[in-house]
Write a structure and sequence with these properties.
heterodimer; A: 207 residues; alpha/beta; 3-stranded mixed β-sheet; B: 238 residues; 8-stranded mixed β-sheet; 6 helices; 19% helix; globular
């Protein structure tokens, strides 16, 4: 037993408090928006929008209105638009309370790798390096192990970094861990997962 | 002060030279200067270095300039939507300088503001920081030192930009997320050429609602835009 994608997203949504301005990455982080419930959360899209709404109904798509994943979206009555330099000004300036994003690897010092694999095609880092360096809190949502069962929570990242010492909290299919002095600290285990199972699946030092 | 030109080719007359640095607005295919890109293709100018967040898609946007091998180097944050880009890059026919997205935007803004360099935390401890000046500032908790890297402003020879509306003096209004990189790209160009969907009479735009003042705009055209959607995503009506 462990959490599935939606349960991971639901757990990540519990990290968000009323009034927060938040940036959600692509993949499971996008699903977090489905679980914020009644909380007053404003989503930032780094291509220049605060107050991102849901996908449009068919026929209502507007080519001038997309999110950072280049998908058509809608605006809300609170929406504000701005240019890319101001958008990253609010990110770099620490105005965005939290970013929730995916990862290929995280290590016990809070280093994050999620933008390139040497030898494979390099597509670019987009806004990920700016986000992890600038926002108040970085929450990573990822599978605990790769498809061969090897831990993706490492002593030291092997892939080129997106940011150094930037991750605050990791939510995986097996549980929730915080980056603290000396390693990772278990915050909670996923439903049906024991602490021993979580430790066994983790290469990083658990303190 | 005559800024309005009859078409994109006329608006770019005398500005295109082999080897120039050109900044282009747009994010993905949203808010890209479609008409000016077509005119750059037709001009045959080559060895371009282009600062733009993306490089279009195969056969559209800046991707058209790849098909004709007019680009020498891209300064971008993400180029994943383009097979021809990858082919030329792997064949070493094309150089790429990856910039974190916010760093690229700020490099353009800085260049336009006469700022040759600035310090940022973005990319510290990554390959992006290799070879760049590092400096500590007391910005951490209780004045603790934090490390920053220096990034340089972009001073482009030419900027090509798309806006929604302009008045005859070049004051610009953008629409929704099509604003994106267009204002910083416009600002960093020694000469800035803008295409809009509509040129309205001077005096008909609310001066309090100008997104980019006409001082940044040297030449202006009006035209029809395809405005292609890259990822059409919809929800079901419940």
């Amino acid at each position: 037993m462990a959490w599935d994608r939606n349960q991971m997203a639901e757990r990540a949504a519990a990290e968000l408090d009323d009034g927060m301005y938040v940036n959600l990455g692509i993949g499971i982080p996008t699903l977090v928006a489905n679980y914020v419930g009644d909380k007053d959360i404003t989503l930032q899209s780094e291509n220049g929008m605060l107050g991102m709404g849901p996908f449009p109904y068919a026929g209502d798509e507007d080519p001038d209105l997309i999110n950072a994943g280049k998908q058509t979206i809608t605006e809300l009555n609170r929406t504000a638009y701005f240019d890319s330099s101001q958008s990253f000004g609010m990110i770099r300036g620490g105005k965005i309370a939290a970013a929730i994003l995916g990862a290929m690897e995280v290590d016990e010092k809070g280093d994050l790798a999620n933008w390139m694999i040497p030898g494979k095609l390099i597509k670019g880092m987009g806004g990920a390096m700016d986000l992890v360096a600038g926002v108040g809190r970085v929450i990573v949502v990822m599978d605990h192990t790769n498809k061969h069962g090897v831990s993706k929570l490492l002593k030291e990242c092997t892939l080129p970094l997106t940011g150094k010492g930037v991750v605050d909290r990791i939510i995986t299919n097996l549980g929730v861990l915080d980056v603290v002095d000396g390693g990772l600290k278990i915050v909670e285990c996923a439903d049906g997962v024991t602490e021993d199972e979580l430790r066994a699946a983790t290469e990083a030092t658990i303190v | 002060m005559k800024k309005i030109y009859p078409n994109a080719t006329a608006a770019l007359d005398g500005l295109l030279h082999d080897g120039i640095l050109m900044a282009a607005g747009g994010f993905g295919l949203c808010g890209i200067p479609e008409l000016l890109i077509d005119a750059v293709v037709e001009s045959g100018v080559k060895d371009l270095t282009i600062a733009s967040n993306n490089c279009g898609v195969d056969g559209f946007g800046l991707g058209k300039l790849l098909d004709t091998h007019q680009i020498k180097k891209m300064m971008s944050s993400y180029v994943g939507e383009n097979d021809e880009f990858m082919r030329q890059y792997l064949a070493e026919e094309l150089e790429i300088e990856f910039n974190p997205q916010g760093t690229l935007a700020e490099r353009m803004r800085a260049g336009g503001c006469g700022i040759p360099g600035f310090y940022t935390k973005t990319g510290v401890g990554t390959v992006i920081a290799d070879g760049k000046e590092h400096k500590d500032f007391p910005t951490g908790e209780n004045g603790a030192a934090e490390t920053y890297i220096m990034e340089e402003g972009i001073f482009a020879d030419l900027a090509i930009v798309k806006a929604w509306k302009a008045d005859e003096t070049g004051n610009l209004v953008f629409r929704k997320t099509a604003r994106n990189f267009n204002p910083p790209a416009a600002m960093c160009g020694k000469t800035c050429v803008v295409e809009v969907e509509e040129i309205v009479p001077t005096g008909s735009l609310d001066p309090d609602k100008i997104h980019l003042p006409g001082i940044y705009v040297h030449r202006l055209i009006q035209g029809e835009h395809e405005k292609r959607i890259e990822q059409r995503t919809v929800r079901e009506r419940s």
